[in-house]
Design brief:
alpha/beta, 3-stranded parallel β-sheet, 7 helices, 12 strands, elongated
């Protein structure tokens, strides 16, 4: 996924939000050299000795951050960042946040941060320029609509069987309609998400399927009375994931990965998801 940069005014989200499940990573860097001694705080080669410098973009939008203030620990990515820092031995006071535009975070070259949380999808192309931790967020396909639509309030995938749905051509979202929802009406195909949104505004379709981060944007910024109907169950195919970004060849990569994996295995990522995302209006469709 390419992160959407929405206008400030429309993306001061107090909108419905939700989370994809935090499952096992599909792309986990090697943890060699990430034992207790190698990952001890005092032995880590951070930008500033004894401190952990974390980057993200500005403005920092909900549900990932709250009040455009990454340092307050509120929002999913802020909370995950502090949990990772704690696993690595850094107290909250040892964490320094810096502003890093999205494009700069994934560009080649030396970084002014130790790691970056900015809704960056792990991809082979990006790994040519930067390192990634294992995934801390699994992106799920999501059904959106408008208040009062024929599918507003539906709670199961089966409830959508009679819906007229649309998606952008050639996307995993379209595949999700055909393979998971299997509606009785052939889904509509659009050359862009903007065209799908216009069709929904015109009530030519009942809903659109997009990935969850895009759903946040559409329902908050592009649709009047937009609603997230729900997230589809995780597909069996490879999962798109967000990972923390690090300098290419960073000595911290395996240690950050170990921290993320421990948070997942210990159920902490799920707890943070429940706290900051899942209860805010993007339920999982049964």
């Amino acid at each position: 996924m390419t992160r959407l940069h929405a206008p400030l005014a429309v993306l001061a989200l107090t909108a419905s939000l939700g989370l994809a499940a935090c499952g096992s990573p599909t792309d986990t860097p090697s943890a060699s050299g990430s034992g207790p001694a190698a990952c001890a705080k005092d032995s880590l080669a951070t930008v500033t000795k004894g401190k952990l410098t974390i980057g993200t973009d500005k403005p920092a939008y909900p549900p990932w951050f709250v009040d455009d203030s990454p340092a307050n620990g509120k929002g999913y990515e802020s909370a995950v960042a502090y949990a990772v820092a704690e696993k690595m031995g850094f107290a909250q006071a040892d964490v320094t946040w810096v502003v890093v535009p999205f494009d700069a975070a994934i560009a080649p070259g030396k970084k002014a941060f130790d790691l970056d949380f900015n809704q960056v999808s792990i991809s082979d192309e990006r790994k040519n320029a930067v390192d990634f931790s294992s995934g801390y967020y699994d992106v799920r396909q999501t059904v959106i609509s408008y208040k009062g639509s024929p599918i507003d309030g539906k709670t199961t995938v089966a409830d959508l069987a009679g819906a007229k749905l649309g998606a952008q051509v050639g996307t995993t979202s379209y595949d999700a309609i055909e393979q998971q929802i299997k509606p009785s009406t052939k889904p509509m195909v659009y050359n862009s998400n903007d065209l799908a949104v216009q069709a929904l505004k015109n009530k030519q379709i009942d809903g659109i399927v997009v990935d969850l981060p895009t759903a946040f944007y559409m329902t908050a910024a592009q649709l009047d009375n937009g609603v997230i109907v729900g997230q589809l169950p995780a597909a069996s195919s490879s999962v798109e994931q967000f990972g923390a970004v690090l300098d290419k060849g960073s000595a911290l990569t395996s240690c950050v990965t170990s921290a993320v994996d421990a948070l997942r295995d210990g159920g902490v990522l799920k707890q943070l998801a429940d706290t900051w995302l899942a209860g805010q209006g993007a339920p999982e469709l049964k």
